[in-house]
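Take a specimen:
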Amino acid sequence: MAKQQRRNYGQYCGLASALDVIGERWTLLIIRELLTGPCRYNELQANLPGIGTNLLADRLRFLVETGLIRQRLMSPESKIKMYELTEQGEGLREAVLSVARWGLGLLQAPAAEDVVRPRWAVLAVEAMVDLGAVVQDEQYEFRIDDEVFHIAIEGGRVAVRHGKPDFDPALLVTTDAVTFVEIGAGRLNPLEATLTRRLVMEGDDDAVLRCSRLLGLVR
């Protein structure tokens, strides 16, 4: 199949060149979904309410052609295909987090029809991380609605990953996606969320303080 011909800005500029690839509607939101791990086609469609299946297929095909994502089998024995970011696609992580961090400041109260997913709350978590607050290697587990994620601090680096930690976490955080996004947007005070049990942090007091500082919840 020949590569799709798409309009471009025709400008010899890094930003214009980037927007030629990621500037179309839905493209960065597909990248957002894959930043927290590989997804099946139906998972992407479920987490992108409002996108038509033909448009999603078109965007995925284009992103594969441009080398930002690739397909692979879930396992050698499986016929189920997954989409995941390539190294080039991973290169968008900091840019996406920066835009997400900026966008948190624009959020108002969620409307009744607004959709929120745990994976989006995790993006808010990663956007909130303050690397200057890293003190020691440890892991924190987050149970957001019906999904589990964790923050792994290793050698001064911080990674937010899907699934349970590799070993017992220093802290267990239980909340819902709306609450965490509202905290990240500065619309909900973490203390208020804790007192009302919308946010529950279980662990050693020092670990609670370290995690809170890492996420910029306390200074």
Residues 53-65 form the longest helix (13 residues). The beta strands are 39-40, 69-73, 81-85, 138-144, 147-154, 157-162, 171-175, 200-203. Residues 99-214 form a domain with the Nonspecific Lipid-transfer Protein; Chain A fold (CATH 3.30.1050.10).
